[in-house]
TrEMBL record:
A GO molecular-function descriptor: translation elongation factor activity
Domain Transcription elongation factor GreA/GreB C-terminal: 81-151
Domain Transcription elongation factor GreA/GreB N-terminal intervals: 7-71
Keyword match Lyase: no
Keywords noted in UniProt: Elongation factor, Protein biosynthesis, Transcription, Transcription regulation
Cited InterPro entries: GreA/GreB_C_sf, Tscrpt_elong_fac_GreA/B_C, Tscrpt_elong_fac_GreA/B_fam, Tscrpt_elong_fac_GreA/B_N
GO biological process entries: DNA-templated transcription elongation; regulation of DNA-templated transcription elongation
Pfam families named among the record's database cross-references: GreA_GreB, GreA_GreB_N
Organism name: Streptomyces termitum
Name of the featured protein: Transcription elongation factor GreA
């Protein structure tokens, strides 16, 4: 990824919003099980209380990460049409002459077969590239190349 804040595609924003909602619901459920200052009874109760407190800390940390990514995505604005970045739509031409359009995202989405994650071999090869540039990347069948035909922002 680039050094600055990365834009979020609509699909990534929706996935993060769903995750944040789920995390907040789970956090509320865990918080409700914590004791209200009463000393737990036996060691098993103390261990359960400690485990729930640790889970609460993990949930709070992930909530902070997701909220931060959503803020970063909002601050980044629309994806660049000059160079490939997260949120870009990229038209590629492969060695056999076929062309394909892919979307660069951070989160895998089974509902979007054209999505390429930024940390995949093709995604890493495309980041920062402009129209006309060639990229090489690893596939299960070996290395292959493609030419970036065009770069567009994702609506």
């Amino acid at each position: 990824m680039t050094a600055g804040p990365e834009p979020l595609s609509d699909a990534a924003r929706a996935a993060l919003d769903r995750e944040l909602s789920d995390l907040r619901t789970e956090r509320a459920a865990v918080a409700a099980t914590l004791g209200g200052g009463d000393e737990p009874g036996d060691r098993a109760d103390q261990a359960d209380e400690l485990q729930r407190a640790t889970e609460l800390e993990k949930l709070d940390a992930r909530i902070g990460e997701v909220e931060g990514r959503l803020r970063e995505g909002a601050a980044a604005g629309a994806p660049s049409t000059e160079a490939v970045g997260v949120g870009s739509t990229v038209r590629l031409r492969f060695g056999d002459g076929t062309e394909s359009t892919v979307h660069i995202g951070e989160l895998a989405d089974a509902g979007d077969p054209a999505l390429v994650t930024a940390d995949s071999p093709l995604g890493r090869a495309l980041l920062g590239r402009a129209a006309g540039e060639s990229v090489a990347y690893a596939t299960p069948l070996g290395r292959t190349t493609a030419v970036v035909v065009s770069v567009g922002g994702r609506s």
